[in-house]
Amino acid sequence: MILLDYSAVAIASMMISLKLEGEKLTDFFALHMILNSIRTSNKRFKREFGKMVICCDHERNWRKESFQYYKYKRNKDKKNSDVDWNLIYKCLDFVQDEIDKGFPYLVVEVPNAEADDIIGALGTYATEIKEPTVIVSNDKDFVQLHSEYVCQYRPCESAFTRHPNPKLHLKELILRGDGDDGIPNIKTADDHFTIEGKRQKSMYQKDLDVWLYDDELSFLTDETKENYYRNERLIDLSFTPEDIRSEAVVKYKICKVRPNKPKMTQFFMKNKLRNLHEKINDFM
């Protein structure tokens, strides 16, 4: 299967075109970039990996409810940005709805879940049933899912990746935290990224070289123990609530794809996407 990190991949391609190619953000541009990112992935991977699953974010997510500072800085930066994020999200929702009506892909969205949770559940399931699978995403968090059957394609690098030791990589992520998601390293307090210009407490490579291989976690102090478990809960995809994981797999199993080429044509023509309609077979 092809697991597409829907909004993240589409937004990344938009940002590249906006910054490097000087494109102007309009409804037409956003629709084109969203659909073209889907078309490109489908054309590139369908023969080897089969059907595509569009993995979507729900408007609410359990991590934000569990950790109030989750993606705090990212959300703040968006509010202060010149980019019309409302337009982007409106177009993402619109395309998601249209895909469900006639495009030949599975759309999986689960209440209170991010696309990460869906990819985590289906990536784990793919390894269990030994189904060759590619995760299309730039996100380093998905390295933990790599296996004999699951690899990752990073569009930003135009390259496949399969980490030789996903568990070790995951542990390093937990120790270092994830600044992009507002998760500090294990030496740093929860609210660190809410304070402009403040530096995290240093993580020294000589310590990491020891800690990574300490399965007993004996290096944890009272100060860092709670922070380690905080990061583990937010980064390790096996900590996704079981009801979300189960629902994602069930939706994958029961979802029926009903491609409807006439409806796809109607959609392209109505939205003046003639250039994509000329490549309609790439979507099939």
The H/E string reads EHHEHHHEHEEEHHHHHHH
**Alpha-carbon Rg, integer:** 20 Å
Strand content: 5-15%
- What's the arrangement of strands in the largest beta sheet? 3-2-1-4-5-6
Describe the protein.
With 284 residues, this protein is an alpha/beta fold. It folds into 2 domains: 2-163 and 241-274, Rossmann fold, CATH 3.40.50; 167-235, 5' to 3' exonuclease, C-terminal subdomain (DNA polymerase, domain 1). It has helices spanning 6-20, 27-49, 62-66, 72-79, 85-102, 115-129, 166-176, 205-211, 222-235, 242-254, 261-270, 274-277, 280-283; strands spanning 2-5, 52-55, 106-108, 133-136, 150-154, 159-161. It has a 6-stranded mixed beta sheet, with helices on both faces. The longest helix is centred in the N-terminal third of the chain and has 23 residues, at 27-49.
What are the salient characteristics of this protein?
284 residues; alpha/beta; Rossmann fold; DNA polymerase, domain 1; six-stranded mixed beta sheet; 13 helices; 8% strand
Per-chain topology:
Layout lengths: L1 E4 H15 L6 H23 L2 E4 L6 H5 L5 H8 L5 H18 L3 E3 L6 H15 L3 E4 L13 E5 L4 E3 L4 H11 L28 H7 L10 H14 L6 H13 L6 H10 L3 H4 L2 H4 L1
Helix pairs in contact: 1-2, 2-5, 6-10, 7-9
Summarize, please:
The protein has 13 helices and six strands. The chain is α/β, with parallel strands linked by helices and about 280 residues long.
